[in-house]
Amino acid sequence: MNPTITLAQAQAAATDQIREAATGAFPPGFSLEELPPQPLNCTDSADKPTGQVLLGVTFWINGLPTTQNNNTYFDALKTWWAGHGWTLSTDSRPADMFINATRDGYLMSLRANINQRLATGNSTPCVGRNGASPTATMAQMMAAFPTSFTAEPADRRRRRCADRQRQTAERCRTRERGPCGPQRSRSAS
Fold first, then answer.
1. What distance, in Å, lies between the first and last C-alpha atoms of the chain?
2. Alpha carbon distance 110, 101 (integer Å)
3. Of the candidates 54, 39, 40, which has an alpha carbon nearest to the alpha carbon of residue 106?
4. What secondary structure does DSSP assign to the chain, as a single string?
5. Of 177, 73, 51, nearest to 115 (Cα)?
6. What's the pLDDT at 94?
7. Which of 19, 52, 68, 100 could be 42's S-S partner, Cβ–Cβ 3.0 to 4.6 Å?
8. Rounded distance, CA 84 to CA 86, Å?
9. Successive 10-residue mean pLDDT values, the chain, 189 residues
10. How far apart are CA 172 and CA 119, in angstroms?
């Protein structure tokens, strides 16, 4: 954990990275529609909470002409990632229109839903709120979170983040416009 970065700074960086990638990969005329942030508890290799949190930011991509499978946009983002220090982690096409890549602890993705609508997401590395130490409790770190969302437990940080981005796209797949609403917290199983 970098003790000088706060959750708000990590969230701003994740959002900026999405805007930079979208601007570099997609043709002019698109817009990004932000969905509610998704805070997650970070866990260690034994799946025990570390006292840190990561945050997923997700956007619908509006204003792009859709094609049957949107491969042009996926390929453009993969090319942009390769030229900007991102490492491709997953390309599930053609079975699942989903790709993601990592850089500096961030995990960015692109997904097309059943209606071919595109969504992009980016998760932050695990950080403490306000640069708090890893021993700070989740309740202390989340107390000042500016929304009504609560943190969700994560089995494995990276897998959970990718799964979460897929789940958001799936929950929203039949909606034409607008956010899906607040995420509900789940209790640990």
1. 27
2. 9
3. 54
4. --TT--HHHHHHHHHHHHHHHHHHHS-TT-EEEEPPPEEEEEE-TTS-EEEEEEEEEEEEEESPPP-SS-HHHHHHHHHHHHHTT-EEEEE-TTTS-EEEEEETTEEEEEEE-TT--EEEEEEPPPB-GGG--TTS-HHHHHTT-SSS---B--SSHHHHHHHHHHHHHHHTTT-SSS---PPPP----
5. 177
6. 87
7. 52
8. 6
9. 72 96 94 93 89 93 80 95 97 93 96 90 86 46 42 46 60 44 38
10. 10
Site of tokens 């969700």: 152
Question: Which two three-digit tokens encode residue 42?
Answer: 């970070």
Residues in the chain: 189
